[in-house]
Amino acid sequence: MVGSRPRPMRRTGKRVLIIVQNLPVPFDPRVWREACALRDADFQVSVVCPKGPGDPSFQEIDGIRIRKYAPARPAEGTLSYVWEFIYSWVRTFGLVLRTAANEGFDVIQACNPPDTYWALAAPFRLFGKRFVFDQHDLCPEVYNSRFEKPSAFLRRTLLLLERATYAAADHVIATNESYRAIAIGRGHVAPERVTVVRSGPEPRRHKKGTPAPEWRHGKRHLCAYLGVMGPQDGVDLALRAAAAIVGSGRDDVQFVFIGGGDSFDRLVALKDELGIASSVTFTGPRRIPDEAVFEILSTADVGLCPDPLNPLNDVSTMNKTMEYMSFQLPVVAFDLKETKVSAGPAAVYVRPNDVEEYAEAILELLDDPERRAAMGEVGRARVETELAWCHQIPKYIGVYESLTSPPRYKPCSRGLGGGYPPAPLEDFPVSRRIHTSHG
User: Fold this and answer.
1) Do 316 and 354 fall into the same domain?
2) In what order do the strands lie in the sheet with 64-69?
3) pTM recorded for the entire structure
4) Distance CA 43, CA 36 (A)
5) Which of 118, 129, 320, 432 could form a disulfide with 124 if both were Cys (CB 3.0 to 4.6 A apart)?
């Protein structure tokens, strides 16, 4: 409940301000879990983020104070991205000043993209405030992946901004070992100042439930995609694989694509061009209730991870992979380094960007229910014993223990941790995120 956990404002030591630009909180699951973990460790937590539709400018949810600004219009080109960053930076800075005046903070945690909030933190560091960089994405690689003809000048600029963020940070939080290696190598950050905190699911909440056969549209099998639909996410490859399956004479497979993004309209048009409209359902472009997502994942037979091989995807953790595993879905993915780290034997890996092999792998799984069940059990076990957010909390809190006075923290029980938004938020355009599959 909003305001259900009022806490007195602290004066020193244990006050954290989290800044995020991509999504509103608590809609951003990683940031919300981080905020709740800090709160449960007896920190005072404030957040600055953009508004979702209908959001107030200020709200307190379960003891976490959240200040929000109206987001810029979705970016459509290089210049509009620059404008979005400048606008968001200025609005964020204003709310940071308001937070400093009202409840104060001792540590600023900035979540990227963009890599510009080191400049916002700089004046506060002069007064002894600490700066934590929570790296959700590799901005130079994101830029290269999104544009067909990236500018060498802009890439160099993004590398400089990234380097400045690394240099300013008292500690860097990376979402996987590949990102940690880049922070140490490319960013020249001392190894002891980089901690891996993965974005694991919540097994207690994200688990297989009662199937909803209506999502199959009368078909025997259902394949599901959950995530952002941008140029670098490979949803077009999944659609072409679906077309190959339908074209082979299989009329017993339905595909559902959950999410939205910059490429949504183009992908809907591609579905029609490929002649597979009756076999494909898009739920977007706006967010659907969590209950509907859970129904689909509880009904599906296979989870789709069509992320193509590129410098970004190969070293990035795809959140949808672990969501599928939490719902005991076997995964079909291209052979990417960090995807293999996440899924292990819970996925089938095919030659990168090969649509025909991808389609064949889907059919092989659909025709082998025993294999699907075994892979689903392995995936769920990996989530519960290794990947769940509960197992990340001690490392995350440990970062703040190293920067502030040690908080009183009790590890969560298996499969728990962090808390959840009290109810699904109103729709928020998924296209606001530059790349939300990661971190």
Assistant:
1) yes
2) 58-61, 64-69, 44-50, 15-20, 107-111, 130-135, 171-174, 194-196
3) 0.85
4) 9
5) 129
